[in-house]
Design brief:
With 655 residues, the protein is of the alpha+beta class. Helix content is 33%, strand content 28%. The strands form 10 sheets. Strands 1-9-10-11-12-19-16-15-14 form a 9-stranded antiparallel beta sheet.
Length: 655
């Protein structure tokens, strides 16, 4: 696969280009996102969206758009594109786009009159700083160019409205100006690499912009953006102009150097694997010595279970286990009574996830298998691992080990597993009781801990947990298996057993330490393949079930009701492939490779270069949810790793 390229026909077709979004992110947590043609379709879109910790722990859209206008022979050519009610688009700058391509960074090419202009933009890795590079490739004569910033200064989940409280003042800075619309915000600096830049202050509002994706999702979709004025300069053929938007002022003479330095440190995006690595990098946020994993763009923050499920694939893809370890240690810092926060951190943490601690063991297990550092891992993490296991065994937060050594969890009005959608205070899939994947992970966690303890000759730990581990496989089979059905119950509560066909049982086939035989694993995988498998994910419910939702759409309530009732999730494919390789061996390689290669097309279809959060359960399996999801990207990467690893072991005679 060559680098990603879109041509003029694709870019000027709004039905095509508005459906494809671009994303860039920095390690500070800032991001930039919009569509291929620079028309924002979400309230989450913007060219500089950055944390404002002095206000809250959320992201804020500061610079929504940066509109360019070229003036030649006194004729204005507007390069921007905005949508307003009644399907009105104005101006229509997309008609000048002739190419979009990604190499080390993204590049747009515009052609108008006798001018050809390229535009590249990036976020600096360790700063809340956007830099845009303009280069005049062709022009018969000099021309004026104006830049009109559209400012939001609001939290990303909200919308800006024209108001009398906005601060209309500005401050001159070197080669530019700064703006601070409201007292609690950081100022936003615009600076140019040219000395002759002029700023014309002309405060006004751009009213009633419409975000069509918000309308489709059932949210308020109209916004007013503040326009302080515009910057102006003259360019000619061969000129290169840099502009930066940032929360900190810098020496304009260094903008070019900073841009070029950033470029030198980036990988050339020349194939599918490089594109996935680039996507993987964007989920990590570094603050001091802490590392967090963003669950998905453009609206998720850090989620506990997502962090642990994502880390192995992301860090294997980047070959960076130091990053893995920092992220694990950051999560441990927010532990409470054996639980990790599902969302939030510090005082805003919500400890409503029964599975996050079990995924912690799984992630640490993958780290140990990758690095081989068994004794070191046990020495460093024994206390954490033992604390979690004891809390689950002894009972805490409506989570407890029953007399049969199975884990029971439940809380009225809440969903404690990953199927966590709640509508009007009622969980859509509460799964109260003993859940199949929780107990499969529970056994794997104990066995992994015993593996490390035996390596380190920790007899006290072995004595405490060995008897429980020996009981679990028999009790697990008795609890979840029924040969009449031929698959595992999704959850069990007392005498009630739910044999609804869902994908959670596939996790019982993929783990290093499994509770059931190869034959039962085969039956599970065959059932999953028959009823749940799609090319882009496993359905969360069989299409034969009366509650099955074939399409994920509508307002929030409608979407939440379908979120885990048929919608297909990519991250589950990693466990399907892992189980398939364990059971079917070499015969599974073709399936695994077909799944992996299937995403080559997808990375151009939604969030360009990323992997979507979810897909419709029915064909054509349209991309939905976040435009790039950490565990989706991670598991696609991990599928490739499993394929390569299996082939290497086979060549070495180990399979």
């Amino acid at each position: 696969m060559a680098k990603v390229v879109f041509d003029k026909d694709e870019l000027v077709n709004l039905g095509y280009s508005l459906e494809r979004e671009i994303l860039r992110a920095s390690r500070t947590g800032a991001y930039a996102s919009t569509t291929l043609c620079f028309c924002n379709t979400r309230k989450y879109h913007g060219l500089l969206v950055a944390p404002q910790p002095q206000i809250d722990d959320e992201y804020h859209v500061l610079l929504s758009s940066f509109d360019e206008t070229i003036i030649q022979y006194d004729v204005p050519f507007h390069l921007a594109l905005h949508r307003y009610p009644n399907e009105i688009y104005s101006p229509k700058g997309h008609k000048y786009l002739i190419k979009y391509e990604i190499s080390k960074i993204a590049k747009h090419t515009y052609s108008l009159a006798d001018i050809k202009l390229t535009k590249e933009f990036l976020l600096i890795r360790d700063q809340d700083r956007l830099i845009i590079k303009y280069k005049v490739e062709e022009s018969n004569m000099p021309f004026k160019i104006q830049f009109n910033p559209l400012l939001a200064f609001r939290q990303r989940h909200k919308l800006s409205k024209a108001n009398e409280f906005v601060n209309k003042d500005y401050r001159k800075v070197n080669n530019g100006a700064s703006f601070k619309l409201y007292p609690e915000y950081s100022p936003l600096y615009f600076q140019f690499s040219k000395d002759d830049i002029q700023y014309i202050h002309k405060p006004d509002w751009n009213y009633n912009l419409e975000y069509i994706k918000e309308s489709e999702r059932g949210y308020e979709c109209n916004e007013d953006l503040y326009m302080p004025g515009y910057f102006e300069t003259t360019l000619k053929k061969g000129d290169v102009l840099f502009v930066t938007a940032s929360l900190k002022e810098m020496d304009p003479a260094e903008i070019r150097n900073l841009f070029n330095k950033e470029i030198r440190g980036r990988e050339e995006i020349s194939n599918y694997e490089a594109e996935l690595r680039r996507a993987a990098k964007m989920f990590f946020v570094e603050k001091d010595d802490k590392v967090e994993v963003i669950a998905g763009y453009p609206w998720f923050g850090r989620w506990g279970r997502d962090t642990f499920i994502s880390l192995p694939g992301l860090c294997i893809g980047l070959n960076d286990m130091k990053l893995f370890k920092k992220a694990i240690d950051t999560m441990i810092g927010d532990m409470s009574q054996g639980l990790f926060p599902n969302i939030g951190s510090g005082e805003r943490s919500a400890y409503n996830s029964v599975d996050a601690p079990m995924w912690f063991f799984w992630a640490l297990q993958k780290y140990t298998d990758y690095t081989g550092k068994k004794k070191q891992v046990w020495k460093e993490y024994k206390d954490v691992m033992q604390s979690i296991l004891r809390n689950y065994r002894d009972g805490n937060h409506n989570i407890k080990m029953l007399d049969n050594c199975m884990i029971w969890a439940g809380e009225d009005g809440k969903s404690l597993t990953w199927m966590d959608a709640v509508v009007n205070g009622v969980p859509v899939t509460q799964r109260k009781g003993m859940c199949v994947e929780i107990n499969a992970l529970w056994y794997n966690s104990i066995m992994f801990s015993l593996e490390l303890a035996r390596e380190s000759k920790d007899n006290d730990f072995i004595e405490e947990w060995e008897a429980i581990a020996e009981r679990i496989p028999t009790e697990f089979k008795s609890t979840f298996w029924d040969k009449t059905y031929g698959w595992l119950a999704d959850y069990v509560d007392g005498y009630f057993k739910d044999f609804t066909v869902r994908p959670n049982m596939v996790i019982a086939t993929s783990l290093k330490y499994r509770c059931v035989s190869d034959k039962i694993c085969q039956l599970i995988l065959d059932r999953v393949e028959k009823e749940l498998f799609t090319p882009f994910g496993l359905r969360t419910l069989s299409p034969t079930h009366r509650d099955y939702h074939d399409v994920y759409e509508g307002n929030q309530e409608q979407r939440d009701r379908s979120y885990h009732q048929g919608t297909a999730w990519t991250w589950l494919l990693g466990h399907f492939v892992e189980g398939y390789l364990k059971i079917y061996g070499e015969c599974a390689l073709e399936v695994a490779e077909r799944i992996y290669n299937g995403f080559r097309i997808h990375i151009k279809d939604y969030g360009v270069g990323g992997v979507a959060e979810i897909f419709d359960g029915n064909p054509p399996h349209s991309s939905k949810g976040s435009i790039s999801q950490a565990w989706s990207v991670a598991e696609v990467i991990r599928i490739k790793y499993m394929i390569d690893n299996y082939k290497q072991e086979k060549e070495g005679g180990l399979v």
